[in-house]
Structure formats: structure tokens, C-alpha cells
Design brief:
Layout (H helix, E strand, L loop, with lengths): L1 E4 L4 E3 L4 H11 L12 E19 L5 E20 L8 H19 L1 H16 L2 E4 L2 H34 L2 H4 L1 H14 L3
Parallel strand pairs: 1-4, 2-4
Antiparallel strand pairs: 3-4, 4-5
Helix pairs in contact: 2-4, 2-6, 3-4
Length: 193
């Protein structure tokens, strides 16, 4: 069984432009040049938590065979949107940045189905496996390790697809919308120039 735990998106306007840039580099691991000014960022934390009930029975040859008796996974999907504190809520540039960041939220939400399928597939693959060893603990540990490997592979695919889609949203054309919608004065004022 795979379920999603998706709390409401958190909107934060407490960070200034410099803090948002540091946050963007540290959390989203996106490189930026010294002159880049970041007005908003969206972070998505995807955290699957699996509960596997493993049973180990004698295998008839002096060892033990471990199988999954039951499996449950909850995927915690948390999103935080940060908008620079220098932007006045309701202003044109604030609205442009919020619209852009909402695009990132929509992309993250659009991956929930894929994540559920991949993690569900990882869970199912482990549930179909068995592991044998000399002791019940060793057999169970082998099965748990197989589960961890399957979950890690699923998360690698999810994270790579998330990064690909999010990066595709951050285009020069997308960033030019502030100039187009709000004019050069408001745009450069928002950038602190």
C-alpha cells in the first residue's frame, strides 16, 4: 500500500534576495553566477517511509528464508515557496514571481503519480522477493537491503525527473515576464538595481 501525505504548500516571505539565492544553491543545488539575483524559489521535499513486516522461517536445509508479510509506504510531499521579502505582496513583481513559483509547485504535484508508481513498484518488487541466510536476522537484513536498494533507485529516478522538469521551467523567456508584465522600472527595482 502506498499513500501520499501532502500538507498545504507553505508560503514564506521572510527571506531577502541574498538569503533566497543561498537557499536556492544549498537546497535545490542549482548553480548561479555572482550577478544572478533570485527573487523566489520553491523547494520540494519528498520523503518515503516504508514499513516492511518481514518474517523468517526455517528453509528446510538448516538456514532461514525471509519474506515480506506486509508492506506499507507513506510518501511525505512537502513544498515551501520562498518569495523575496523586498517584494511587496500584491505588487506586479510579487505576482509575477508567485505565478512563476506556482509553476514549480504544479510541476512537483504533477510528479506525484509517477512517484507513487515508482515507489509502489519498488515496494512490490521487494514483496515478491525472498532472502536466505544462516540466521533469521541475516535473512531479514538481506531483504531489508534489497528494499533499500529498490527505494533508492526509485528516488533517484524521481529526483532526476523533478530536476529536469524544474530546470525546464527556469528559462530566459520565463524570467523576462517580469520586465514584460511590470515594466523596466519595477523589474529593476525588484532586482535592487
Amino acid at each position: 500500500v502506498v499513500t501520499l501525505d501532502v500538507p498545504p504548500v507553505v508560503y514564506d516571505t521572510s527571506l531577502n534576495r541574498a538569503a533566497i539565492k543561498k537557499h536556492e544553491i544549498a537546497i535545490n543545488r542549482r548553480p548561479h553566477s555572482e550577478v544572478d539575483i533570485i527573487l523566489g524559489t520553491t523547494e520540494t521535499e519528498i520523503q518515503p517511509s516504508a514499513t516492511l513486516q518481514i518474517q523468517a522461517q526455517p528453509d528446510g536445509t538448516g538456514g532461514f528464508c525471509a519474506t515480506v508479510a506486509s508492506a506499507k509506504t507513506v510518501i511525505s510531499w512537502k513544498m515551501v515557496v520562498h518569495v523575496a521579502s523586498e517584494l511587496k505582496p500584491g505588487s506586479c513583481m510579487y505576482n509575477v514571481v508567485m505565478t512563476h513559483e506556482q509553476g514549480h509547485v504544479d510541476i512537483a504535484r504533477g510528479l506525484m503519480g509517477m512517484a507513487t508508481q515508482l515507489i509502489g513498484g519498488a515496494l512490490a518488487s521487494v514483496a515478491r522477493k525472498s532472502a536466505t541466510a544462516a540466521t533469521p536476522q541475516e535473512a531479514s537484513k538481506k531483504l531489508e537491503e534489497a528494499g533499500s536498494a529498490a527505494f533508492n533507485a526509485a528516488m533517484t529516478k524521481i529526483n532526476a525527473e523533478m530536476e529536469r522538469r524544474q530546470a525546464a521551467h527556469d528559462t530566459p523567456e520565463e524570467y523576462a515576464k517580469g520586465k514584460q508584465a511590470c515594466g523596466l522600472v519595477a523589474y529593476y527595482h525588484a532586482l535592487g538595481r
